[in-house]
Amino acid sequence: MNVGIFNRVNHKDKDSDGMYAEWSSIPLEGGGQGVLGAVGGRDVVLAVVKQLSSPDPSPLTTDAEVEWVLEVIRYGLSLPLSEHSAVRDCVRVACAWLTPLLAPTPAAQPTPPALPPPVVAEPHRYARKILRHLQNLFVPRPDETLAFIYQWELGGDLISKQAVLCHRVLRLARALADGGALGGAEWKALLLLLLAAAAALLAPPVPPPPPFHAAAIFQLCDRVLSVLFEVWLVACHRSFPGPALWRTLREQCLRWRHRDLLTKHWTRASLCLTARLLNNLYGPHFPAVPISEEDANLVPADMSPEAVMQSWYRILHTIGNPVDLCRPRVISQTPEFLQYSITQEEGGREPSQHPCLEVLPHIFHQAMKGVAAHVDAFLGTPRTSLIGLSSSSSRPPSIAPTTPPNSITSQVAETEKPPLTPLRPKVNSIFHLFGEWLFEAALIGTSANYNTQQRAEGMPPQASASDPTHSYHMFRCQAGRAEALGTLCRVLCSKQCREEVLAPYLARCYVAMHHGLRDAATAAAVVLNASDIFRLDLDGVLVLVPDFINALDKILSEREPKIECDSIDKRELRKAAISILLSMVAFPYHYKDLPVPEFPGCNEYAGMTLGELTRGRIAVMCVSGVQVEWSGALAVPLLNALYLCVRHNALAAPAQPLPPDMRARSESGSTEGHSLDDFVADVRGLDPSSPVFGAALVVRATYLVCHRLISSWKGELQVSLAALELLSGLAKLHSSKPEFIIDAIERKRAVRWICDYISVQCGRPPQAHSRDLHSCVVAAYGCLSAWLCPALLADPDCLATLMEVVELGISGTKSQAKPGDPPMMKDEKELKPVSMRVRDAAESLLMQILEQQVDNGLNGNWCRLDERWLAALGHGKLRHFIADGNIMLSLLEEPLANSQEPQPTLVVIIRCAWGRYAWSLSSRGAARSAGRGAGGACARPVDTRPPRAPPAPHCRPLPPAPPCALDAAFPTLDAVLRQLGDPEAPTLFKLLEQQAAIEKRVKESEDNVVPEEYVPPEPVTEFQTARLFLSHFGYLNIGGDKKGGAARLWALRAGGAGWAAAVRRVDACGARAALTVHVFCARAGHTRAADILRNASCTSGLPAGFLAMLRGLGKPVRVRGHGGWTGHVDTSYDTPHLQDLPPANNVGEKAPAIYDGREQVLYWSDSTSEIAFVVPSGLGPSDAPPDRRSDSIKSDTDGSCTSSRSSEKGAGSCWDVSSETHDKLRALSLDLDRQPAAAPGSGRRNRDFTTKILIIWLEDFEDQLNLPIEELLGYCETGVWWRREEVCVVCACEARSGLVRVSAAAALLAPRLLPHVLRQQALAHARLHTDLYQPPHVRRRHLIQELAQQFRQDLTEPELLESLFKSP
């Protein structure tokens, strides 16, 4: 006999008593056999119970008789299974005698046995004995060591019949708990019955059953555990069990831990209690734990909060330390295992080597999933998988899912995870509850594993790490360890902004993550659940940077991860890895001189800095990730990471050109022929310490993105848009950093690749064309606009390529489809663009090329001269025309200044789709250098040569013909008039005589007059020069227009009602995309709009990062002297007359509220967009002084849906728990039910809507969940319609490390890069929504056409010409 096993049988571990150390457990010895068991009473049982089981009236009338019968039933329940009929009758009688405790129910079929009068009179007295006797049904028989379900030699029929009786007793126990009139003693007896049943069925270690017995055993064991926990929870509500019962439950559960069903039902019961506990602690606003319908009533609805809390803590610790499940030597340290080893195997094998313990790794994994479910519930992020964990109808362990975890059907949705509730407990509190289990489980099988428990006398020794069996067992437990590591990471990443985590907990977490990241079996769990680890201001977190760099390289460098991810979705893993990569892109720049922090005893990166370690590897990961990514949803954040990596590396770019050895391998102009390894190999070959590393990275990023854009992303809208945004950002990088020298040939290649992309997309078959495809083409034209620069436009080949794609967009085809084909003339082509949006985008690019508009400065190229300026100078009225249907001409026929020499002068104000321009034209009779004589005429040159003699005639004229008869055939004029009797004939004759006399005198004096030089007439002082301008430009082609064609020129009726507002409406619409961004500063804890607005008026105490951000967003400009967009339609593009204004204040000189749009704003613009950054102060443009208001157009005229501000509090947060009801305001939002009347001529079409963008600087990032967005929107007036669903809120928060966390970008940024990223985010969001609307130049064109329709004069051509000769 094995003496060690024998000693362990007699050993009792006193250290495991825990909270019940002062109490003794209740022994579960069964019901016993009584007197009949000693003398043998089989025949007595058969005779008695047969009569008692009949429905006839009971012959028992006294208590003594009932007591004697109970002894008979007691022995009958312990009879062998072969006496099934007797056992069945005993069960029927016992169950029937317990029914007086239940509420009356309709008679059942068959009729139950009759009840003796004593039982009816005192049901509680006999119920306790009956419940104790029913234990004999489950416990082994006197001559047996195992319960009946493990005696497979009896046959399946007998076992099934006995199992049916057990199910009946369990149903009765459940009914008694739900509706029975039980006292404290009866509850104790009922709980002991269930404990004894479960102990008999679950405690023995048995080998796997035969297949034909597996289902029955599984069902009965599952049923007894289910009833046990259900009844126990009801008992906690009606009669709370005493400490002895709780200790008994805990000791028994420790003996059942080799059963996976115990873990399932423990998780089920404790999760239901956790759901009720959280509701009691945090109220209904805390996220509810998803519980299955069958478990919804597991915890009584009226259970007191105190009972819930006590029950929850006790149930949670019922199974002891879950980490023991990965230690077979501890689990097998039970009397049943030791007895089995002695009796069945005669001590020949250690109990820890029993075959039933092979499932311990699976049970350990399930237990850790249960612990993780509890932690997730406390964090407020319960997963839907909790329903499966809490459900009692799970499948047997032999049934496995048929769908692999990474199949297409298992792919997760695109929705982002919801934010954590601010009501969640602190990290330290969760670690106090679950930290001991999680830390120990996360370090099993590692050298850092700690186990503080001393090995007691008689306990088996710890297994050696070099033991192959132990190593294999630890390897099988890696799934549970990974679950614990993931839970630790989720808890740590739930840290709130101002929360402090205890240093011991941080150290243990870092050690666990350090070992987890270096293990291929657990690295995926750490990466998946620690996506925010570097965003939380954790002390000492940089020690994990090398391990995360190595893990991310294994995940992102290849399409398939190089680490194990059996139960983890690979797509979610890559998504988490990209999120971590985004949080680390600023490290090479921000921590470039910081030595690499390492764990004590580690010396892998001695002498290296974080900049040297991460700069090259992060760049390689970004490039390789973009190269191999196949999912469009993940390619977008990868492109964002690549762009931020390039931008951060460009912050320290030197002023020197790119050397030849740093250029890309392929110098060809096409991406064809590139292998997938070329781009990554190029980046790996770069020297990160080189001063031109950033410039070389730009070239490779451009090559890679262009290659994938043409080869892989043509059909994916979001990825194509993101790639084009990246290329546009790289183009702006060249213009914003002149020292960032890139060869012109590289820029030409990028432009040619984008042109090829447009040609490929436009050349796809008609069935492939869609709105998404056209959106990609429009974005590509916008990307080309960003790449324009004087050097490219001066290159003939590049300009020809650009003009080809412009022609393709406008007409739908190229003049020369293939090189060498004869060009097709314009008149021969059919104007058929692929879409009107593409045509508009191509026209916009053409206009920029023609104007050479690359970066037109601060205020744009609009002329500030308008009608009000001219009126202020004292000039008269203007003539207004519409030319070609979309150009408005305003003509002033007066000189702008006092001219000493009157000349035909004209001032033309041209309003077209591309802006407002002014021309001044003057018609001069001579050059400005000519002498100035009287009247402005100049002397003609005098010919000093002698006059020439007239040449002799070549022939003499013939004499007049003599009269003949033919002359009489035609009557004379005099004869005809006299015959007709015309009264006007004398007048005609008189005129003829006068003309004949004049001609005669001229002829007579012709030879006698000396010829003189002709002198030009004096210039006239009154003339109409408008017709000269219109005639020169072909608008007065009298009789030359095609018949039936529309007139090219229309006259407008100026000065009528609404004329000034209509003109102002045209001027208020810019030719570039105008965007208003409102900037706020929210101090820690500020959740009211008044407090947030008050921060803008502070002159001191504001965060330095907030002021630095404002300085970088734009340049301060004065609203009154600004010719661009100012954030409101009333004040934009509206410069007053002859006003000398002082320069605007720089950020920091005064409170930020100075930029509230009344006096100053922060302005930024490029060739296609302009942004006005406004810092609301609580006052709007209408609160400005009367002399500063614009009377040109009001917001209601433009049709904005403005409303007065309300003092009511708006619910701007999904976690607002301050009130029960949320009165959501609709201030400044589109009320579809009650819309105000629009202004004449301006319909409410999609083009009228804009996007609301708010940038909020936070001191506490958690405050983003409680921001009063609805209230803040009331102070964001722009005078333009908007929709509530198109509001974008971007939050920025500075970390203690100096980096800035941005919500929209999901990245940590260097402060210098923050303004640029915020502008890019604002433009990208606005472009995403305005993609459905019309471009600015199209909006202006439509406004001009609306004005023309409203004020057009219906004049015929003669009437139009006549009006030109009259004063306007």
From TrEMBL:
A matching Pfam family: RALGAPB_N
Report residue spans for region: Disordered: 389-419, 928-953, 1175-1216
Report biased composition (Basic and acidic residues) as residue ranges: 1185-1197
Q: Which molecular function GO terms apply here?
A: GTPase activator activity
Q: Biological process GO terms, please? A: regulation of small GTPase mediated signal transduction
Q: Where is the composition biased (Low complexity)?
A: 928-941
Q: Where is the Ral GTPase-activating protein subunit alpha/beta N-terminal domain?
A: 159-284
Domain of life, per UniProt, equals Eukaryota
User: Which PANTHER family does this UniProt record tie to the protein?
Assistant: RAL GTPASE-ACTIVATING PROTEIN SUBUNIT BETA (PTHR21344:SF1)
UniProt protein name: Ral GTPase-activating protein subunit alpha/beta N-terminal domain-containing protein
Q: What is the species of this protein?
A: Bombyx mori (Silk moth)
